[in-house]
Amino acid sequence: MGHIERDLKEYPVASVDKGTLVREFLSFLSIESVKHKTEDLTPFECDGLTAYPQIPLVAVLPENEEQICQIMKLCNQFRVPIVFRGAGTGLSGGAIPYDQGVLLVLSKLKRIVHIDPVGRSAIVQPGVRNAAISEATKKHNLYYAPDPSSQIACSIGGNVAENSGGVHCLKYGLTVNNILKVRFVTIEGDVVEIGSEGLDSPGYDLLALITGSEGLLGVVTEVTVKLLPTPEKAQVIMASFDDVEKAGLAVADIIAAGIIPAGLEMMDKKAINAVEQFIGAGYPMDAAAMLLCESDGSIEEVNSEIKKTTEVLYKAGATDVTVSTDDAHRLKLWAGRKSAFPAVGRVLPDYFCMDGTIPRRTLPRVLKRIAEMEKTFNLQCANVFHAGDGNLHPLIMFDANEGNQLHRAELYGAAILELCVEVGGTITGEHGVGIEKINQMCIQFDNHELQTFLNLKLAFDPEGRLNPGKAVPTLNRCAEFGHMHVHRGEERFPDIPRF
Amino acid sequence: MSSTETNIDQFKSLIAEAKQQSESVRIRGSGSKDFYGVSLEGVVVNTKDFSGITEYDPTELVLTARSGTPLSVIEDALRENNQMLAFEPPHMGSEATFGGCIASGLSGPRRASQGAVRDFVLGVRLLNADGLDLQFGGKVMKNVAGFDVSRLIAGSFGTLGLILESSIKVLPKPECERTIFFDLDNQSAISKMNELAGMPIPLSGTCFVRNRLAARLSGSEIAVKVAHQKIGGEAHDEKDFWHSIREQSHPFFQSEGCLYRLSVNPTALRSEYPNELIEWNGSTRWIWDEGTLDKHQEFASQHGGHATVFRGNQPGDSINKMSRELHLLQKKIKTAMDPHGVFGRKRLFTEF
After folding, report:
1. Rounded CA gap, B215 and A297, in Å?
2. Is there a contact between B104 and B121 (Cβ–Cβ < 8 Å)?
3. Interface contact B54, partner A, CB < 8 A
4. Do B59 and A229 touch (CB under 8 A)?
5. For A11-59, how does the pLDDT look when each residue is reduced to its tens digit (9 = 90+)?
6. Under 8 Å CB-to-CB from A471, ≥6 apart: which residues?
């Protein structure tokens, strides 16, 4: 956000011409698996972050792990940068190609290799869609818990790269908490098995390091996911509030009552209205805010939790509480929340979805500041919020073809992220840094912390050729960006020259 | 200067001194996990005085504390608010510290259903070998900015840096708990554990020991009652049972020789060790044996896992085996975080 374009001088270039590279790839990949003409490359020019399209030098679509190893070895030999791409649904630009590099697309690896219904795990290739796992395991009464809103399209490889969350994170965790093992290919083309079929493995927790590493360390060719028994029953409560702050406080009251709901979502008036006009989920158009609060588990467990939660919500000042009557009703209420992004996209042609996480108690303050900033930047912002875990998704609406709206939207987004850091939170809860929030990394982390990340990166990728320019900024970039990381109220490293 | 700043300065100077002398720094809380590892080398840097809960807001479900804080102090504070550390950390000693809990990464009976230490760590404040005070992760539930260094630190046994502070996610205590026992042999216990773990019931622990399988249910009173009806078995109020498993004070653990811990596919069957203790829905097996690590690793490898010498290792001997590629990556991580090998030399690996 704000001067996002990459400074290409900082990053490596291929030491081989495009023609040679294509010929080399064609020696072990089929013609359909090697895309090098502009018209064939255009579909890959961006991911879910559409504002910064870029065409790669070459795109390759391998069909198996062996070919991936060969691609890695070849690129390593010719010192060609590589960007990885799954379904391309990421919202932070992590899969935006690099003009001097190869785009390695994993969409052809979409096989569910094995389901172990007794041991409750499934081995899947990276291109398998998130929702396809639960669809395939449904007959065993098992499912894969993380459910990002894009779950019908996003693939598990991308979920691992981004450590994706979803609406059920508070109770069931993120991707990192729900995978057991990966097969990982290093830049040298070696295959390493990380994790185990048990619950842990000796040595450092490389599985945790790789999950959420945004394609900076290597590529995952197979993932063993943990499966959970499908709850006997799930029911959702929709609660309306005439005041956003009351809704925020109700969330704290639910937690204080000892309830960990399966999902706990909040939407403000603008988001409610956009959704209601888009799909008609039955949301309260007159409410200032609403909560969706789901309980799951055994029938008796759900019944008692719904009763308890309803009481808490009324006590917290809910003006109306609706409990889903059956599964169709429940899914309809969720469909509204899950279509919030496209719904907002219908109000204006473009939107930026921010992803900061904040301590929940700061919610009223943060929402108030976001609303004030609408005037500062003269743009509208709708808010959806994984309220249970403090993860905000302000949706900044704009029209990139209108004046300087794109630039204003970038500045607005940057201001929101900085606000999240200021109140003790983080710039990204689940969408990743990518290129979108690369500058804000300089605000959240000081140079020494960033250097630690860079050291870890170099341990896997000594010349910085995997997904260059994403996720972890260089110290030069931060110096040029100019926003100082402020640590305990004092400026650190006054002796470092600034530009 | 406050006492915490004095502490940090002392840590820094001890680390700097060790680095200059090319010695290793052995970070130690109460020493309750001293039994674990390849060997104990280096100058002890004690964290016990660096103590205190720095932030705890029950409705945020997050607690932050300094590394020397006694684990019991943290658990008391949580109990007052009807909350808990859901990974049920083994103390292995009455003075176990919070830093040791994070650094050892050990988890108790609830691990299979709720997660391990690494699943609950949200952030760490770390002193590295250059004496730099670094903050990774944070105090919020979800955070994917930068590499997940905090989870990498969990279980690293003080070999990557000195943990000054950690933030962890905490959870409400269940309203009701009930333990149900089944008389079974180890093979049928494994089947039963997997069967129970695949059912939509509030299962919060399983343990097979001495021809009995214990299954714990946690949740609302009605949920526990109904689940018990569903699975059958006999409920006994053996108050200290789970505590004795977690703390390894159960008679099973009072033995001589090497205690092996196998982390394997939960369905793996092995007939030659009828006296093993099985936890975590089948995925963790404890075996006392005089046999070599190789033998157990062979079985573990066949079942997608690893064997570790948990107790009774000959100092200097390897406590586990891993592939050459994996070992190489481990070494690279160590070098990236601690290039001069200052922290916990040879605690986890024989070479570094």
Report:
1. 18
2. no
3. no
4. no
5. 777 778 999 999 999 999 999 999 999 999 999 999 999 889 999 999 9
6. A94, A213, A214, A215, A216, A432, A433, A434, A438, A441, B146
- Answer yes or no: are the C-beta atoms of A261 and A309 closer than 8 Å: yes
Between the two ends of chain A, the Cα-to-Cα distance in Å is: 20
User: Which among B61, B219, B263 is the nearest to A301, CB-wise?
Assistant: B219
Helix A65-77 × helix A18-26 angle, to 10°: 150
Nearest CA in chain A to B128: A452
Q: Where are the alpha helices (DSSP H) in A105-243?
A: 130-137, 156-162, 169-172, 206-210
pLDDT in tens, A367-422: 999 999 999 999 999 999 999 999 999 999 999 999 999 999 999 999 999 999 99
pLDDT, tens digit (0-9, with 9 covering 90-100), for B213-224: 999 999 999 999
Q: What structural domains and CATH numbers belong to chain A? A: 9-105 (3.30.43.10), 112-229 (3.30.465.10), 233-341 (3.30.70.2190), 348-436 (3.30.70.2740)
Angle at the Cα of A453 (from A184 to A156), degrees rounded to 5? Answer: 35
Q: What is the mean pLDDT of residues A435-447?
A: 94
Contact B142 A211 (CB under 8 A): no
Domains contained in chain B, CATH given: 3-172+332-337 (3.30.465.10), 176-311 (no CATH)
Angle at which helices A299-315 and A244-256 pack, to 10 degrees? Answer: 130
> Which chain B residues have a beta carbon less than 8 Å from that of A449?
134-136, 146
CB contact A472 to B (< 8 Å): yes
Closest chain B C-alpha to A32 CA, distance in angstroms: 32
- Mean predicted confidence (pLDDT) in B11-31: 97
